[in-house]
Design brief:
This protein has about 450 residues and is α/β, with parallel strands linked by helices. The protein has helices spanning about 30-35, 50-60, 75-80, 85-100, 110-115, 120-130, 150-160, 180-195, 225-235, 250-260, 265-290, 305-315, 330-340, 355-365, 370-380, 390-395, 400-420, and strands spanning about 15-20, 40-45, 70-75, 105-110, 140, 175, 200, 220, 240, 295-300, 320-325, 345-350, 365-370, 385. The chain is built from 17 helices and 14 strands. About 45% of the residues are buried.
Length: about 450
C-alpha cells in the first residue's frame, strides 16, 4: 500500500482564486448518468426547447426509446406570465404519472428559463408530493448552468434527497456518488470480501433501496464534486470518512483502507483481499505510464475531478502537473488528495478564462485537460487536449478501471505522436543510370 506522502504536498499551497469569465457546461447534463442509475426515477426538466435538444443530443435518445427524462417546455405565454405555469405543471405531471406507473421518484429540475421567471419549483414539489403521496415523492433541484458547473447537477440532486431519507440508529456505511452499475458491483464486492457491512448506496438503484441516515452512519464519497450533499449528510448527523478518491491503484487502496480502519479490519486481511486486484491495477496503469511519464499536464477547471486526477497522474503515471484548476476547492473533501499531490503546480479555484489561457499558452504543457468549448481552439493552436467531460461519462473508479483511466490520458499523446511522426518512405533500389524514383 502506498502510504508515503511527498515531502511536501499541496494542502497549504496558496490558492489562486479567479473570478471572471468562465467556460461551463450545463448542469442538466447530470441527468444523463443519473437516469440510468436510478431505474424507477423520472427527471422532468422545466425549461425551453433548447434544454430538450441538449438532453436528447447528449443522451443520443432514439425516437422509439422511452427514456426516464423529459422536458416540460415553457412556451412564450409562460415566459410572458400569460398562463399559470403551476397549473400547467400540475397537469403535465398528472399525465406523466398516469402514463408511466413505473415511476416511483420524480425530480422537477430547474433550468435557466424557469429560474429567470422565478418559477418556485421547490413549492411545486411540495404540492405535488402531497397530491401523489405516498406512491411518488417529488423532489426539486436546479440544473441551471448560469452559475454552476455540470457535475453540480448530481450534487444538487442528491442533496435534495438527503432531508427526506428515513432516520436510523444503525451503524451503516453509506457510499455516496453515482457509479456505473458494473463499478458499483465491484465496490460492493470488495467491501463484502473485507467483511464490511451493511453498505448502502446514494443514489440507490430503486426507491425501495434508499438508505436511512442517522448519527451512527459513516459515509465515504466516491465523487469529489458532492459538496452540498456532504453538508446535507452532516446536518443529518452522519460522519464523513476523509480519504483519497478511488482513482487508480493507490487512490483505490487508500479509499478502501480508510473504510477498513473505521470498521476494524486488520491489515493482514486487508492485504489478502486487495493484493490481486491491486497487482492487476498497477500492471494496467504501468502499460500507459510509459507514454505519460515525464510529460506535463495542465487542468482547466471543469468537472471538479481535477485534484484527485492530478494526484493520480503525478504519483502513478509520472506526469508533472503545471496548473490544477478546479471550479470549487473543498478542502474537507479533496484534502487527502492535496496532501499526496507533490508540491509544484499552481492550484487555482474558479476561472478567468482569458488569464488562464495566457498561462496555458506560456506553459506549453504536453497535455491540456479542458471543456469542450476550449478543446478545438487549443487543438488548432497545436496543443494536445483531453475532454474533461469524458472523465465523468467513462467508468474510471476502483481497481479494474485503473488502466482505462490512464488510457484516457495516454491516448491523446499517442495520437499526437502518430500524427507528427515522419512518413516512412522505403528507398527503392535502383541500378546505374536510374533516377531516385527508379526511372531511367
Amino acid at each position: 500500500m502506498s502510504l508515503d506522502s511527498p515531502a511536501r504536498g499541496c494542502r497549504d499551497t496558496p490558492v489562486l482564486k479567479e473570478r471572471g469569465q468562465r467556460e461551463v457546461f450545463c448542469g442538466l447534463t447530470g441527468i444523463i448518468w443519473l437516469h440510468r442509475k436510478m431505474q424507477d426515477a423520472f427527471f422532468l426538466v422545466v425549461g425551453s426547447r433548447t434544454c430538450a435538444h441538449l438532453l436528447q443530443s447528449a443522451a443520443g435518445v432514439m425516437i422509439f426509446a422511452e427514456p426516464r427524462f423529459g422536458t416540460a417546455i415553457l412556451e412564450e405565454k409562460d415566459l410572458a406570465g400569460l398562463a399559470d405555469a403551476n397549473t400547467e405543471l400540475d397537469r403535465e405531471v398528472a399525465r406523466l404519472l398516469t402514463r408511466r406507473p413505473d415511476i416511483k421518484q420524480l425530480f422537477l429540475v430547474g433550468s435557466c428559463p424557469s429560474e429567470v421567471i422565478k418559477l418556485d419549483l421547490a413549492r411545486a414539489a411540495e404540492r405535488l408530493t402531497t397530491l401523489h403521496a405516498p406512491h411518488v415523492p417529488v423532489y426539486n433541484y436546479s440544473g441551471s448552468g448560469i452559475e454552476t458547473t455540470f457535475t453540480q447537477g448530481e450534487d444538487a440532486c442528491l442533496a435534495a434527497m438527503v432531508p427526506t431519507l428515513a432516520a436510523t440508529k444503525a451503524r451503516d456505511l453509506l457510499v455516496v456518488g453515482a457509479l456505473p452499475d458494473v463499478v458499483e458491483d465491484q465496490c460492493l464486492s470488495l467491501l463484502a470480501q473485507l467483511g464490511i457491512g451493511p453498505v448502502r448506496m446514494l443514489p440507490a438503484r430503486r426507491a425501495t433501496d434508499l438508505p436511512a441516515v442517522g448519527p451512527e452512519t459513516v459515509f465515504a464519497l466516491v465523487q469529489p464534486f458532492l459538496g452540498d450533499t456532504h453538508a446535507a449528510l452532516i446536518r443529518r448527523g452522519a460522519r464523513h470518512l476523509p480519504a483519497a478518491f478511488p482513482f487508480g491503484e493507490e487512490g483505490t487502496t487508500l479509499w478502501l483502507w480508510a473504510v477498513a480502519q473505521e470498521f476494524g479490519i486488520s491489515r493482514a486481511h486487508f492485504d489478502a483481499v486487495t493484493a490481486a486486484p491491486r497487482a492487476r491495477a498497477a500492471k494496467a496503469v504501468a502499460a500507459h505510464a510509459e507514454t505519460l511519464n515525464g510529460k506535463s499536464v495542465f487542468f482547466f477547471p471543469d468537472s471538479q475531478l481535477e485534484i484527485p486526477l492530478a494526484r493520480f497522474l503525478a504519483r502513478e503515471c509520472g506526469m508533472t502537473p503545471l496548473e490544477v484548476g478546479t471550479p470549487f476547492l473543498h478542502a474537507a473533501i479533496t484534502g487527502p488528495d492535496l496532501d499526496l499531490l507533490p508540491e509544484g503546480p499552481v492550484i487555482s479555484e474558479g476561472q478567468d478564462v482569458d488569464r488562464q489561457l495566457d498561462r496555458q499558452h506560456a506553459a506549453r504543457p504536453d497535455l491540456t485537460v479542458c471543456g469542450l468549448g476550449l478543446a478545438n481552439p487549443l487543438e488548432a493552436k497545436g496543443h494536445t487536449t483531453k475532454w474533461a467531460i469524458e472523465l465523468v461519462f467513462t467508468p474510471v473508479h476502483f481497481y479494474e478501471q485503473a488502466g482505462d483511466l490512464a488510457a484516457l490520458f495516454s491516448r491523446p499523446l499517442r495520437r499526437k505522436a502518430l500524427l507528427t511522426a515522419p512518413i516512412f518512405r522505403p528507398e527503392i533500389s535502383r541500378g546505374p543510370g536510374q533516377s531516385p524514383g527508379g526511372q531511367p
